[in-house]
Amino acid sequence: MEEVVCSKEDLNPGEMMESTFGRHSIVVCRASDGHYYAFLNRCIHQGAPLSKGKICGAPEPTDTLGEYNFDREGDILRCPWHGREFDIRNEGRMLANEKFKIKNFNVMEKNEQVIVYK
Amino acid sequence: MSTKQQKKLHLIDTDIHEKVTYEDLMPYLEQPYKRYIEDCHWIQEKHMPFTQPAVAGVNRADAEVPDGRPAGSDLPFMQYQLLDDIGHEVGILTGALDPSPSSMHGWYEMATALARAYNDWQIEHWLEKDERLYGSVHIAAQEPHEAVKEIERVGSHEKMVQILLPIDDIMWGDPYYHPIFEAAEKHDLMIGMHHNEPPVYYGKWPRYFIEWHTLIPTAHMMIVTNMVFNGVFEKFPKLKMMMIEGGFTYVPFLMRKMDQQYRDLRHEVPWIQRMPSDIIREHICFTTQPLEEMSKKEFLQTFEQMGSDDMVSFSTDYPHWDYDNPYEALPNGLDEELMRKLLSENARNFYPKLPNRKEED
Ligand code: FES
Question: In the prediction, which pLDDT does B202 show?
Fold first, then answer.
């Protein structure tokens, strides 16, 4: 199964939009690398619609107390409710614990279109 | 958020925040207070030093009103996103965080005027506009005699179910509060403690928000312990207290600890004539949010250790960032009877002014 979920020009890097894939509501994100990533639009914690959250960066883990290195702008999807951070370019894994991830879909870019497929 | 397949819940939600602005309060404020805000741009001192925790500050990012007004400020949007969507039977408003008359540290005349205005605004714009919504009386307890006057003025409103007290610097078991408790009893109002400002951390803020937010239950533990041992519930036997937004998983520890202390140290508080855990079971109820993630087994063990499943009631804390979704926040597979207690019947039994259960659709 494959489906066009948006056109490439719909999103700039660091932006996201809601779309559908079959009967699923999905969120399509364009990361800082210019590529497109798609996830189920439902947070694994309590089900918030992720497309209402924010694409942002995150302070990198550090060994120095009190140090903030804010990085990866455009690559992190934060949930609109409790703010959990998911790594767009790493299969939607949660920054606080990589064992957990939001559901991701396969994406290809063809001509001017973004296609999600199974 | 419910999905299409999910059945509507008959929920009594014990913590919903309606949001007021200074502008909203203007028609209800008297002079000279109105003038101080309009002409002198007075705003209440702010305490919290943190940049806000989540994506949209203290609110759910999707709860902002579509026209850009702040989350919780518009009844139709709250109806759409929360009350109609989940199927609320009742929502209890726990309101004012800014301005928050009860946490002012000076100028108590202003605090008293704000509380009056707030109550009038709440009644007119919320309680009288949606039959599901019930309210909390806001008072400036810094002036107990004025607080009692305010309770006398609005406490008999049929939809006012509790009084929210400030939690700042005088412990609630202190006889200072007795006139307030007496007025509460008279009007069948319960006492609500919503976390708001410290007393965690010596009355100050810790270095990080995450510390403060982790330790909110400690503020609740202080008040529960203080109310029980100071004999408030012995003097005011009809009084009950709802502990809002501190969760409930600390309660088994506290009950055991207080009972053990009582066995050793009863001589100091001879007016207490039964086990503290019995007093808690009879007089105190705890709201669920913010729930930790627990397995069904862990969840049920907590109730077993409390010796009761009658004293916990579900709350969403809508529209705040740490909202609990009633469809997702509880462990799966709880039996129907327990769900019914948590989602509605415990709160109904707690608040004498709530309506009887309507028949299921
Ligand atoms: S629902 Fe997404 S972090 Fe809680």
Answer: 73
pLDDT 10s digits, A46-95: 999 999 999 999 999 999 999 999 999 999 999 999 999 999 999 999 99
Joined tokens for residue A48: 């918030």
Does A54 contact ligand 1 (Cβ within 6 A)? Answer: no
CATH of B11-350, one of 3.30.1390.20, 3.20.20.140, 1.10.1060.10, 2.60.40.1120: 3.20.20.140
The CATH number, out of the four listed (1.10.150.130, 2.60.40.10, 3.40.30.10, 2.102.10.10), of the domain defined by the range A2-117? 2.102.10.10
**CA-A46 nearest atom, ligand 1:** 1
DSSP per-residue letters across chain A: -EEEEEEGGG--TTEEEEEEETTEEEEEEE-TTS-EEEEESS-TTT---GGGSEEEEEEPP-SSTT---EEEEEEEEE-TTT--EEETTTTTEETTEEEEE--EEEEEEETTEEEEE-
Q: For a substitution probing ligand 1, which of A41, A78, A84, A93 has the most ligand atoms within 8 Å of its CB?
A: A84
pTM of the complete model beyond 0.90: yes
**pLDDT of B121 above 80:** yes
Mutate to test the interface with B, among A18, A25, A46, A55 (most CBs of B within 10 A): A46
Atom of ligand 1 nearest to the CA of A50: 2
Q: Which residue of A has its CA nearest to B319?
A: A81
Q: In percent, how much of chain B has pLDDT > 90?
A: 81
Using an 8 Å CB-CB cutoff, list chain B residues near A53: 55, 61
Q: Report ipTM (2 d.p.).
A: 0.90
Return the residue of A nearest to B290 by Cα.
A82
